[in-house]
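Per-record layout

source: Lactobacillus gigeriorum DSM 23908 = CRBIP 24.85
name: GtrA family membrane protein
length: 135
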Amino acid sequence: MSKIAKKENLIQLVEYGIIGILGFLVDLGIFYFVQRLEVLPIEVVNIISSSIALIHNYLWNSYVTFKVYDRFWLRLVGYFLVGQITTLFTTICLWIFVTILHQDKYAVKIISMIVAVLLQFLINKKVTFKRKGIS
């Protein structure tokens, strides 16, 4: 791998991380406020907050990080599906560690989101935002 490719990967990772932090704040903020209403199960609140953050992150990553503008809706669906797989992971973590084991919901949410973001970056870089003709 050339120095230019390595530098581009590092820049993309940093940009993805910054956008991820913003999405994390969107997700956690919505999660916090909706769960305080105590009208929905915590797992449903997680799906709502994660879904909104996914759309936020897709828009920013598409235009800023990966600069890929073609096949917008197809890429959005792919990104959303990858995100929902990791949302399922965080939801299962919340169910096990909060609902069953009575651990702190914010600690579980934050730790599970960190693992999810790392998985999302790898999958999205190789699949969702792959440019045509590049292997």
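summary: The mean pLDDT is 88. The CA atoms of residues 81 and 90 lie 14 Å apart.
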